[in-house]
Structure formats: structure tokens, C-alpha cells
Design brief:
The chain is an all-alpha fold. It has 10 helices and no strands.
């Protein structure tokens, strides 16, 4: 057998990737596989091929396809929060501005990563009881609760009416992301990026002001 066609072994994979790098390479390849093939066509073999490793390599870090998708969803939530943090860092510090900035980050992430967004929020493939995924998702929700609490000056966990504000804020930004990804908001999608962002900010602000 020619040398360049020799099957790659697990030892080869370990040599190619230093400690920890294989996991990150597989997550990167998994996101690309998901974006291109969708959840229905997603496979460990396809991920391994994209990463340039043997089909058995994912077993080093992920038990099965569900385990890889679970880890990818958890990473998605961490990136999701990071986008919101970046948006809020550049916004005014009053409660409404901070909540609107977080909402813009939500929509930005959703529209920039539609396949990952669906995996995180709409798919049953990830194990949402997994501790890492549950913690990442909870951190995202806790951030929303804290932002609404700051705006309303009350704890949503203690005031049911304020928790309804949390639900309203979540519903509006999630709905905007979903509808934009589906191409259903033609009016917004016909705008320039700057005008569309201003419109989304106004929609979020109106919801919080009860207009």
C-alpha cells in the first residue's frame, strides 16, 4: 500500500493534535458540518473527515453524535452570551439601553449562526440535562433576568409581573431572530444593516416601554 494512502490511526491523531486541540478541531468541524448538512445530515464520520482525522477520533472526547451536538450547543450558548456582553459594553449604561443592546446581540447571533441557533433552541438532539449545557443555557437566561431586573427595579423571581417582562423580552428577540432567518420579515430585510439594526432596537424598546 502506498505510504500516502495508509489509514490514519488514533496514534496519528494524537500526534497531529496537541492536548485539547483535537476537541476544539472537532467542535469547529461539527459547526461547519451542521451549517452545511443540517441536523438531519449531520454525522460523526462527516465531522471527522472535515477535521482530517480518523472516523474513530471523535470517541476521544465525545461518546456519540448526541454528545458532540450537546458540547456544540453548550459552546454556542457561551458564544451567544459573549456577543451580548460585547454589545452591552458599547452601549449606554441605563437599564433600557443595556437590555436593548443584549437584544441586538441576541438577534445578531441568531442571524449569523442560524444552524447553531436552531440546535441550541429548537433541536431535541442535544442532551439538555447535560451539566455543561444546562449551565451554559442557564447563564444566558440568568443574564436576561438580571437585565430586566435592573430595568424594572424588581426581582423577576419574586414579582410575577416582572417575570412576564422577561418572557416578553425573550419572545420578541427570539421571534425576530427566527423570522429573519426564515426570510419572513421582508420589510426589515430590505433595509440597510444600519437601518435594520435601528428598527430592531426600536422594536425591542417599544416592547419594554409597553408601547
Amino acid at each position: 500500500m502506498p505510504k500516502d494512502t495508509k489509514p490514519r490511526t488514533r496514534a496519528d491523531d494524537r500526534h497531529r493534535y496537541h492536548h485539547g486541540a483535537l476537541r476544539e478541531a472537532l467542535l469547529t468541524s461539527a459547526e461547519r458540518e451542521l451549517a452545511e448538512k443540517g441536523i438531519e445530515g449531520f454525522s460523526l464520520r462527516g465531522v471527522a473527515k472535515r477535521a482530517g482525522v480518523s472516523h474513530a477520533a471523535p470517541a476521544h472526547h465525545f461518546k456519540d453524535t448526541g454528545g458532540l451536538l450537546t458540547a456544540l450547543a453548550a459552546e454556542g450558548f457561551r458564544r451567544f452570551v459573549a456577543v451580548q456582553t460585547m454589545r452591552q459594553a458599547g452601549a449606554k449604561k441605563d437599564g433600557e439601553s443595556q437590555l436593548v443592546a443584549a437584544g441586538l446581540g441576541y438577534v445578531e447571533f441568531a442571524t449569523a449562526n442560524p444552524a447553531l441557533f436552531r440546535l441550541m433552541f429548537s433541536s431535541r438532539r442535544p442532551d439538555h440535562g447535560d451539566p455543561a449545557l444546562a449551565a451554559a443555557a442557564r447563564a444566558a437566561f440568568d443574564r436576561l433576568v438580571a437585565d430586566v431586573a435592573r430595568l424594572r427595579g424588581a426581582d423577576p423571581w419574586e414579582d410575577p409581573s416582572v417575570m412576564l417582562d422577561v418572557m416578553a423580552a425573550w419572545a420578541i428577540v427570539h421571534g425576530l431572530g427566527d423570522l429573519l432567518n426564515a426570510g419572513r420579515l421582508k420589510h426589515l430585510q430590505g433595509m440597510s444593516n444600519a437601518k435594520r439594526e435601528a428598527a430592531v432596537a426600536e422594536i425591542i424598546g417599544r416592547t419594554m416601554r409597553g408601547e
